[in-house]
Amino acid sequence: MNPKLHPPSVRNRNNRERIRMMSNKSRLALWLTFLQLTLLLTGCWDSVELNRRAIVSGVSIDRGPTEDTKYKLSFQVIVSEEISGENARSTSPVALYTGSGRSMYEALSSASSQTARFLSLGHIRVIVISEAFAREGIKDIMDVLERESDMRLTSLIFISHGQEAVQTMSTMTVFSKIPSNDLVEKLDTTSKLFGYNFRVEVDDVVRGIQMNGGGPIINGVYVSGNLEKADSNDNVKTIAPQSILRIAEIAAFKGDKLKGWLDGSTAIGTSLLHNTIRQYPVLLEEGGGYSAFSIYKSQVKVSAEGGDAEHPVIRIKVTQQAALKESTNGKDLTQPRVLTGLADQLTAKCRSQIEAAIAAARKLESDYLGFGEAVERSHPRGWKKVKDRWDQIFRECEIVIEADTVIRHTDMRSRAFEMNR
């Protein structure tokens, strides 16, 4: 019988059957495709459950006494039960595990054998390197920190000043249960308000080591007071803590080796040239009294001028603003000439700080100030010819300092406080 002669109901039924068969085949093909894709997916072969991890917040790296124990690593591990308050046992909020070995990885393995959990390095905030290791060289250490996939390049680097680095990892602090967090917060506070210290991360140190003729500058840290009581909860139970974790001077490097420490005006001038200082105090003594200022909004530009890269002129332009905080010398601060005279003294002070920083860098024979980078930016071709002799050129090149200071306000008073007699 001719299909065309089928009644409409029969033809519709046949069409529905064909559509149903095609739909079933499409579904089967789709499921087969999904199954093939799942075979290509990889699982987390090295996954570790959270309750099996020990979160490391800080690491100290000390120089061991022998080559077999060259690396002495101490890991500050957070005790989560004490931090969260759940199932707390009134014990220390952190625990310290130390391992040693011929390499950093071997020391890590040694420390891991002492804890029931896997040491998790992805949350490290602070890395403290001993002064002994810094003077010997930190290139290999930085290679490991940059190479390790679990480490963060934003971790802060410190140099332990005059002590073993482990001391900073085992000091209980008042304002934070975790000593590493306390150190980070102290650095943020001093960098914003009171001084020359600023954030130095792993990546900053790696780039500083690669600087021709120069090196990185790294914040120092040390523990003052009774070191025997530092790791006890009793240290934070008294009004006056017996041991205090402190931000110290600045460690100046050439390449990967520590050359010396910078403090006072030398450190301030160095931070100014790096354009990292935010606010710092200045005291001017005159006439049996003094005027104390807060210097803020400092902007520094370093450039190299001259057509000859072998005889560059390093030009430093500094602009800064100041606010009067104290005045005990009876000056009439309503007079413009008085404020102008004080601003000139602040400018001279700034110039002397920068000169002190340059003199210290030349004495240490390290261009950690970045003058060579300024020459390279201005004369890239000439720099290739002189970079191998930059140490000598750095000691002799001409430096011009242009500084300007503006006193913006005197806070809530324009005259010194006077008593009626």
From TrEMBL:
It holds the Pfam family Spore_GerAC_N. The keyword Repeat does not apply. It is a lipid-anchor. Residues 250-410 form the Spore germination GerAC-like C-terminal domain. Gene3D superfamilies: Nutrient germinant receptor protein C, domain 1, Nutrient germinant receptor protein C, domain 3. Belongs to the GerABKC lipoprotein family. This is Uncharacterized protein. It comes from Paenibacillus donghaensis.
